[in-house]
């Protein structure tokens, strides 16, 4: 059958979570509290604004709307400093092989990310022009777990939702994919991404055998 893929970005194509972490942690230090890698897990797949809310909650810090805007810009500026240094070396293992397979088999794919920086990141790692469509944080009004981002992706690919395969590393993303009536492959731990149809530890799980199973 005809299928199409919709990929999340952070945690699936590249590991930008480590850069988000460094930038959020510096903001926390500035505000006088500790922000750990464990805390950072709570921000995966979550929008920038929501991430700040979670971070401020962790530190039990209350600030004005104006200050929030200032910190959002500050964090993103620092984050972009890391992004601007990214190269194709940062594409996660298994991704290039998978995209080559999809291209060879004329299976289209889109990006479905919460990140407003997604186009820049894809550009930096040299994958921008390979995607048939890009849906990012600038295109959606409702964040994951709302299915909006993936529904727009399916529309852009002109594909029925039930024929779309979403690849996601975040719980909210898996929920969004299932709410969109799509097949979901989780990348991470089975215990965490239990609602996905399939779960692999990393992107090398997309073996030719598994891909055949998805297509047929
Ligand atoms: P930005 P994804 C998400 O990307 C990240 O997982 C999440 O940690 C981040 O806060 C969000 O993008 C927004 O990113 O600040 O660049 O707009 O996993 O949906 O590709
Ligand atoms: Mg992600």
Question: Can you characterise this structure?
Answer:
The chain is α/β, with parallel strands linked by helices and 216 residues long. It has nine helices and six strands, in the order E-H-H-H-H-H-E-H-E-H-E-H-E-E-H. Strands 3-2-1-4-5-6 form a six-stranded parallel beta sheet, with helices on one face. The termini are close together. 1,6-di-O-phosphono-beta-D-glucopyranose binds next to helix 3. Keywords: Magnesium, Metal-binding. Belongs to the HAD-like hydrolase superfamily. CbbY/CbbZ/Gph/YieH family. GO terms for molecular function: beta-phosphoglucomutase activity; magnesium ion binding; sugar-phosphatase activity. Its cofactor is Mg(2+).
Q: Main traits of this protein?
A:
binds magnesium ion; magnesium ion binding; 6-stranded parallel β-sheet; sugar-phosphatase activity; binds 1,6-di-O-phosphono-beta-D-glucopyranose; 9 helices; HAD-SF_hydro_IA; 216 residues; alpha/beta; 11% strand
Helix content bin:
40-55%
Q: What structural class do the secondary elements suggest? A: alpha/beta
In spatial order, strands of the major sheet run 3-2-1-4-5-6
User: Separation of termini?
Assistant: 6 Å
Largest sheet: 6 strands, parallel
List the helices and strands and how they pair.
Layout: E1 4-7, H1 17-31, H2 37-41, H3 48-59, H4 65-83, H5 95-104, E2 109-112, H6 118-124, E3 133-135, H7 148-157, E4 164-168, H8 171-179, E5 183-187, E6 198-200, H9 208-215
Parallel strand pairs: 1-2, 1-4, 2-3, 4-5, 5-6
Helix pairs in contact: 1-4
The chain binds 1,6-di-O-phosphono-beta-D-glucopyranose and magnesium ion.
């Amino acid at each position: 059958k005809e299928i199409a893929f919709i990929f999340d970005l952070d945690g699936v194509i590249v590991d930008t979570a480590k850069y988000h972490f460094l930038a959020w942690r510096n903001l926390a230090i500035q505000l006088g509290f500790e922000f750990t890698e464990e805390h950072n897990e709570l921000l995966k797949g979550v929008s920038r604004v929501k991430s700040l809310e979670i971070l401020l909650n962790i530190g039990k810090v209350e600030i004005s709307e104006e200050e929030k805007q200032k910190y959002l810009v500050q964090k993103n500026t620092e984050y972009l400093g890391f992004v601007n240094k990214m190269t194709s070396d940062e594409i996660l293992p298994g991704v290039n092989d998978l995209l080559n397979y999809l291209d060879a088999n004329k299976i289209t794919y889109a990006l479905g990310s919460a990140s407003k920086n997604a186009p820049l990141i894809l550009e930096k790692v040299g994958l921008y022009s390979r995607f048939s469509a890009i849906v990012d944080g600038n295109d959606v009004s409702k964040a994951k777990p709302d299915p909006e981002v993936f529904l727009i992706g399916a529309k852009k690919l002109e594909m029925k939702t039930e024929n779309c395969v979403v690849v996601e590393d975040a719980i909210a993303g898996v929920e969004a994919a299932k709410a969109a009536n799509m097949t979901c492959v989780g990348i991470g731990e089975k215990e965490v991404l239990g609602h996905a149809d399939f779960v692999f530890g990393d992107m090398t799980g997309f073996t030719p055998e598994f891909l055949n199973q998805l297509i047929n």
